Amino acid sequence: MKKILLLLVFSCLLFSKSNFEQPYPTFDKPRKVVMQLYKSDLKTVNQTLNVIYNIQKEYPSESLQITVVAYGDGMRAIKKDYDKQTLLRITSLMEYEVEFIGCRNTMETLHWVDKDFIEGISFVQAGIVEVIEKKVSGYIGVVPF
């Protein structure tokens, strides 16, 4: 009976890992995902957040890095005056080490300053360039909508 149980547990572990391609994601070599947020309508923003939650459900947290780069109209979604429920979802994701990066070019064009945005956002000069550089450095680009 113990041998059957052990075989069953081993099989479950083997098959549960088979959903991932090799090399398997690990702490040292996590899956790295970058998402672009360039729209601010609630449906698109919340769909993006839903996709992040779905990704987090499948990968062990220590083997996953997610970065969201907001630029253009997407910058509105990380401003303090955006939809309160959505901002709560974003700050919750940030607590789970999802990184949100904003675009200073957009901020300069619209005369926004750092204090207009929720706490914990980091900024780069050009959001789209950050997406490109993340992809070059091994991040997988995901467009959830």
Could you give a short description of this structure?
By secondary structure, the protein is of the alpha/beta class. 43% of the residues lie in helices and 17% in strands. It has one domain: Hypothetical Protein Ychn, Chain: A.
Biggest pleated sheet = 5 strands, parallel
As a whole number of angstroms, the C-alpha radius of gyration is 18 Å
Ranges where pLDDT stays below 50 over 5 or more residues in a row are 5-15
| CATH fold title | Hypothetical Protein Ychn, Chain: A
User: What shape does the CA trace take?
Assistant: globular
User: How much is the average pLDDT?
Assistant: 88
Question: Overview of this structure, please?
Answer:
- The structure is a single chain.
- The chain is an alpha/beta fold and 145 residues long.
- It is built from five helices and five strands.
- The chain has helices spanning 2-17, 42-58, 84-95, 104-110, 127-136, and strands spanning 31-37, 64-70, 99-103, 122-124, 140-142.
- The protein has a five-stranded parallel sheet with strand order 4-3-2-1-5, with helices on both faces.
- α2 (42-58) runs parallel beside α3 (84-95).
- The longest helix has 17 residues, at 42-58.
